[in-house]
User: What shape does this take?
Amino acid sequence: MDVFTPLTRDLSQQHLRLARELLAFKRLKTYLDFGCNSIYQWAICKHDLPPQETRAMVCVAEMLETLPALRAAAEQGRISWYKLRLLTPYATEESDEALVHLAGQYSVDQLRKALRYLAAGLNPDKDTEKIVTWKLDVHTIVLFEHALRKLSEQQQRRLSTNEALQRMSALVLTGNCDDAALQSCRDYAGLDILAEKARELMTLRDLPEELKDQVPEIQLVKVADLPPWENRLLRFNPHRHPLTPAQRTELMRRDGYCCSTPGCQNTLWLQVHHIVWFYHGGVTVRGNLAVLCSACHRMIHKRLLILKGRAPDGLDFRDRFGRLLRPPPDD
Ligand SMILES: [Zn+2]
Assistant: This one.
């Protein structure tokens, strides 16, 4: 039988309360008042809650609305949060009661093992999945992310890893992929990796002096030796609004193919924004251009989000009340 202490009960009930608050915030779109485009960005900016944790909480709170037995068990503190989180993805109206019974009989670890065999019976949708662990090198990861982004943008929706792999396989099985193409893709990814290292170094620049001594010398030497990832021949015309594909690529690479807004982790539908708007006299130069996702870009043009400063490392994002999106740690 499960060992359930008052501490576990308190923690679980607090998790449930937070999950319900997050769901209410999501439905009321309260995050817009904080300059955030989603509840996930709000949770990361204001509470340092990782997006996957927030996603799980919102999902559990939403599912419990249709699962009376699990809901009652959660409210009365008869099931721990971790079990709830583990079981709700498998729960249906039919399996609701049985899962509460199961939660009372097994530990979290036992439940995880039991679910491998019970999943198909509890929720047939979970039957065809298999978790695979691959060891990939950094070039492969960068190339896969680019391919996933391109396929998702072609399809006008975010594809899952599963869907992307099927489409990539179909492409290979019906076309060809020679060594020259592979080499050029790897070279492209190599520049992305250098740009990523440069960004990591930027964060080291802000380390307090006493901690800077802790950075291994070898790392600093390697950093100084990094070949430039920027295209030195690339020029920006300050008075021309549209960007060339090469200019766009360089800015995407600099900003890590991710929205620059704090806490926003969107890597799709990225756009380049003039920090001082072009029609307010802003110029097309690297320092006045920042990569944003379409949602954050829209927020800026609706004035729900205010962006000032200089790209890439002097950006200042505030909500419409003037509050910083991610306040300094001592605030
Ligand atoms: Zn964004």
